[in-house]
Prior knowledge:
The chain has helices at residues 18-24, 38-41, 49-67, 79-90, 103-118, 148-161, 204-216, 222-225, 238-242, 248-261, 266-288, 310-317, 324-336, 341-354, 359-369, 375-385, 401-408, 413-418, 449-469; strands at residues 3-8, 29-36, 73-76, 94-98, 122-126, 174-175. The protein has 470 residues and is of the alpha/beta class. It is globular.
Amino acid sequence: MTRGLHWFRNDLRLQDNTALNALAARVDQWLPVFVLDPRLAGGARRQAPRIRFLLDCLERLRCDLQKRGVPLLVREGIPEEVLPKLLHETRASLLSFNEDTTPFAACRDAAVRRVVERSGGRVVACSDRVVFRASDVLSAVGEPYAVYTPYRNAWWKRWAKEPRYAARLARLPAPIPGIAAVAVRDLRADGGGTGAGYLPTGGGAAARRRLTRFLDTEVRRYREDRDRPDRDGTSRLSPYLRFGVISVRQCIGRAEEAARTDAVLRGGVAKWLDELVWREFYAGILEQHPRVLRENYRREYDPMVWNDDPQGFRAWCDGQTGFPIVDAGMRQLRATGWMHNRARMVVASFLTKDLLIDWRAGARFFLTHLVDGDPASNNGGWQWAASTGTDAQPYFRIFNPIVQGKRWDPKGRYIRRWIPELRDVPDESVHSPWESGIATTYVQRIVDHAERRALALDRFRNARSRMVRR
Ligand SMILES: Cc1cc2nc3c(=O)[nH]c(=O)nc-3n(C[C@H](O)[C@H](O)[C@H](O)COP(=O)(O)OP(=O)(O)OC[C@H]3O[C@@H](n4cnc5c(N)ncnc54)[C@H](O)[C@@H]3O)c2cc1C
């Protein structure tokens, strides 16, 4: 009789779960386990939107498992210590999990593997989080790509040859008897914290409903609406993808099926799928270059002089910079744990090019507050905005927050939703309220954009030339 444990992490689902399928094929009895690691979810972190969403998903997974007669074991502690003990307690010899390639996770998983194998157990680790790992999509000279467009083309060529759907529900073996589970409800944070009332409903059923709704409606206008923060035009699936509540393969499979049955959807679906490929691209960059979490991808910007400006940083965090599109984005983030992609680009550009504050401070803040906070996509987005990344925005292209606001939120609906102080300012000046002549309680601009633009150009140019001289 072979027994195994599946260690759930960022794969909180039963359908199309590669390592779970692999375990199910190898054992007669099993149990699922989740380890709440205090290094990731301890203390104040427990209140972060991301962790509260995770615990909600976990509770729903527990219910799904319970319906199948399987208890979910939830333990708190360091996985390297908890898992070997649990294997011993349950007399299980196999541990399965889906790989996670962030530096912290890779190091932790290697340690877990060592202790399990040392005590005679075996580990089944599978790639599941992305369709293709960086090493699966190589250029003609056998190198991983560092630029998105050729990567995307190669990615789709590979997909055409080898589509990877496995949207099956694992045939679950019987549970190992006699082990007490811990209800996730005990661990769920009770209310409060940022984004409390706005967090999306966790769990696979909610993710599948959202995907269905998106493919039935918004995807039709995705090409036009995806950049409009005033419209609800994107899928909002990022938190579910972040925790693997739905798999990227399930998303691609369902979207391709929708486009096959309704030709009108093709344009929107193609654009949306390319966004999922961005997610794969950034995951690959982090896997190949773990240093990017701490360092510029482009070393030519290493001599860049960033401002030490705690006041400016505070104003940015609080949505009090006096630039409406920036403040609306930051207030949306603080209130809901999510921010529209266009707003993410604008606020990141404002922090790095107007306030000249190091992108690492912004990336940390985002990771703390985003419900979808993902080290690879977040790093990719920040380094893109700061011009230090792979195919980053060139340093001389600096977003003008007023122009961005007018272009992507022409009637100021997004602005007014998040900045009630500007409710009575007419559309024409809602992006530059200082021109309206209307007295409001809205904060004054903390910098002059034109001046800061010139300063940023100077700093970036100097950084590059210093690097060349070195
Ligand atoms: C500074 C900055 C930080 C970001 N941080 C994160 C983050 O921590 N986590 C995160 O998931 N995304 C991040 N993004 C990417 C993007 O903003 C979000 O994925 C997107 O807004 C999520 O909303 P959605 O699910 O409605 O997206 P949709 O438009 O419906 O896209 C579908 C999916 O494609 C993926 N995707 C879309 N755009 C991108 C992108 N530019 N890069 C990588 N994947 C993408 C996401 O998984 C998304 O759920 C960041 C972007 C920027 C500019």
